From TrEMBL:
<comment type="subunit">
    <text>Heterooligomeric complex that forms two stacked rings.</text>
</comment>
<keyword id="KW-0067">ATP-binding</keyword>
<dbReference type="InterPro" id="IPR027413">
    <property type="entry name" value="GROEL-like_equatorial_sf"/>
</dbReference>
<dbReference type="InterPro" id="IPR002194">
    <property type="entry name" value="Chaperonin_TCP-1_CS"/>
</dbReference>
<feature type="compositionally biased region" description="Low complexity">
    <location>
        <begin position="477"/>
        <end position="490"/>
    </location>
</feature>
<dbReference type="GO" id="GO:0005524">
    <property type="term" value="F:ATP binding"/>
</dbReference>
<dbReference type="GO" id="GO:0005832">
    <property type="term" value="C:chaperonin-containing T-complex"/>
</dbReference>
<keyword id="KW-0963">Cytoplasm</keyword>
<dbReference type="InterPro" id="IPR027410">
    <property type="entry name" value="TCP-1-like_intermed_sf"/>
</dbReference>
<keyword id="KW-0547">Nucleotide-binding</keyword>
<dbReference type="InterPro" id="IPR002423">
    <property type="entry name" value="Cpn60/GroEL/TCP-1"/>
</dbReference>
<dbReference type="InterPro" id="IPR027409">
    <property type="entry name" value="GroEL-like_apical_dom_sf"/>
</dbReference>
<comment type="similarity">
    <text>Belongs to the TCP-1 chaperonin family.</text>
</comment>
<dbReference type="GO" id="GO:0051082">
    <property type="term" value="F:unfolded protein binding"/>
</dbReference>
<dbReference type="InterPro" id="IPR012720">
    <property type="entry name" value="Chap_CCT_eta"/>
</dbReference>
<protein>
    <recommendedName>
        <fullName>T-complex protein 1 subunit eta</fullName>
    </recommendedName>
</protein>
<dbReference type="Pfam" id="PF00118">
    <property type="entry name" value="Cpn60_TCP1"/>
</dbReference>
């Protein structure tokens, strides 16, 4: 419960942030459940399970990390009185598993598909999902601005699954609004040698050669040489992962060629994907097929840094978001927020079904499970009821974090969801007014997969902790106290082996 309480207040658009300070003096300000859980110094073995589910939610879906920890904590809290009354944990586990299965079936039934819409419609739908994710983050104030940027970047990489094809570069200074998206690749100007300034800094339709060799004069033996029959016919650019020496830089400058050495591996791969070039390990026999191209290459000043920017790339399988902002911690949190939004948009593109957010889906499943519980005889009726009650933690926490009267709002929501007509199924907490509103109509959407994964993982974790009836510690791993106890135990039982081991341990 202590772990759940730490992240509890970060849920939703009005959630607070945590400032985490570690032994090394690093400071992190974050609202992201997974980040907070990773940075907490957790000793309790059962609490570590919650960290694991937060991580799994983060890697699988990207968002909903706080939700999953809260749900698991709440399931356990609801189970506690039953365990204290002597109910066998296996009975509880069985009922919880049944309830989670029913809940997931219900989510699938309630989910609305965004498949088969035109590209324009799809864009706006994906932007709504991204905005819902961003609304609870530090950059929530600019969520529309960033949501469209995220959707553009995800659409740019198409069906490519590699997340590293979307580069996020952080440049301190300026305001958040100065952030921009490059439909291609951008990276910081690399280490440069003499002669660099004479090189042209802007090309239209250049040919791009990517190398993985050093063009530095070391000794006669390993002399790399590039021969260009007529450098005026093309406007080439050279990118190399390794250094390009003084002589090489000057040589290219004389021939109006731009070169950059020591380009990071990741950036080089992204340039290759974007421009259609292939990384070469030799400069002999360079043919047209291995050269990349783009519409415009230029070197631009961004804040205090100079950036090399390739835009209008033919295969367009990559995009770069350049983030600006005041403090370093702020930009890092913005990057974490964008990562969540990017993951969500990718998920929504693949599993194109969404559900109403703002606690609406949680209330609807809660109502459905309570109704279902009435049809069951025996104890499991109570257990499924308690599971249904636990689901209400999401809307309740949304109210608490925004400073609304949670009891009042939840009563209104229960009343709305209980309507026989079923029209209240999409109602959730209205963060702006402190009442209730149709979340779906207000475009508070989240991909169904987020909720399904959260309920699955939280139920698994709760069942796992419930199935443990005793914690056994290995005395060896205890401190000197433990050692003394172990040797005393040996003496008491007259066990020579134990006593011997006790002494040996002490000597070590």
């Amino acid at each position: 419960m202590a772990v759940a309480d730490v992240v509890r207040t970060t849920l939703g658009p009005r959630g607070m942030d945590k400032l985490i300070h570690d032994d090394k003096g690093n400071t992190t300000i974050s609202n992201d459940g997974a980040t907070i859980m990773k940075l907490l110094d957790i000793v309790h073995p059962a609490a570590k399970i919650l960290v694991d589910i937060a991580k799994s939610q983060d890697s699988e879906v990207g968002d909903g990390t706080t939700t999953v920890v809260l749900l698991a904590g709440e399931f356990l809290k609801e189970a506690k009185p039953f365990i204290e009354d002597g109910v066998h944990p296996q009975n509880l586990i069985r009922s919880y598993r049944t309830a989670s299965y029913l809940a997931i079936e219900k989510i699938k039934e309630l989910a609305v598909s965004i498949e088969g819409k035109s590209l324009e419609e799809k864009r706006s739908l994906l932007a709504k999902c991204a905005a819902t994710t961003l609304s609870s983050k530090l950059i929530g104030g600019e969520k529309e601005f960033f949501a469209s940027m995220v959707v553009d970047s995800v659409l740019a990489i198409g069906n490519d699954d590699r997340l590293n094809m979307i580069g996020i570069k952080k440049v301190p200074g300026g305001t958040m609004r100065d952030s921009f998206l490059v439909n291609g690749v951008a990276f910081k100007k690399t280490f440069s040698y003499a002669g660099f300034e004479q090189q042209p800094k802007k090309f239209e339709n250049p040919k791009i050669l990517l190398l993985n060799i050093e063009l530095e004069l070391k000794s006669e033996k390993e002399n790399a040489e590039i021969r260009l029959s007529d450098p005026l016919q093309v406007e080439p650019k050279l990118l190399s992962r390794l250094a390009i020496g003084d002589l090489g830089t000057q040589y290219f400058a004389d021939r109006d060629i731009f070169c950059a050495g020591r380009v990071a591996e990741e950036d080089l791969q992204r340039v290759a994907a974007a421009t259609g070039g292939t990384v070469q390990t030799s400069v002999n026999n360079v043919i047209d097929e291995v050269l990349g191209s783009c519409e415009i290459f230029e070197e631009k000043q961004v804040g205090n840094e100079r950036f090399n920017i390739f835009s209008g790339c033919p295969s367009g399988q990559t995009a770069t978001i350049v983030l600006r902002g005041g403090a370093d911690q702020f930009i890092e949190e913005a990057e974490r927020s964008l990562h969540d939004a990017i993951m969500i948009v990718r998920r929504a593109m693949k599993n194109s079904t969404v559900v109403a957010g703002g606690g609406a889906i949680d209330m609807e499943i809660s109502r459905y499970l309570r109704q279902h519980a009435r049809t069951i005889a025996g104890k499991s009726q109570l257990f499924i009821n308690s599971y249904a009650k636990a689901l209400e933690v999401i809307p309740r926490q949304l109210c608490d974090n925004a400073g609304f009267d949670a009891t009042d709002v939840l009563n209104k929501l229960r009343q709305k969801h209980a309507l026989a007509s079923g029209e209240g199924a999409l109602y959730g907490v209205d963060i702006n007014t402190g009442g209730i509103a149709d979340s779906y109509a207000n475009f508070v959407w989240e991909p169904a997969v987020v909720k399904i994964n959260a309920i699955n993982a939280a139920t698994e974790a709760a069942c796992l902790i419930l199935s443990v009836d005793e914690t056994v510690k290995n005395p060896k791993s205890e401190s000197a106290q433990g050692e003394a106890a172990a040797s005393a135990m040996g003496r008491g039982r007259g066990g020579g082996a134990l006593r011997g081991r006790g002494r040996g341990m002490r000597r070590r």
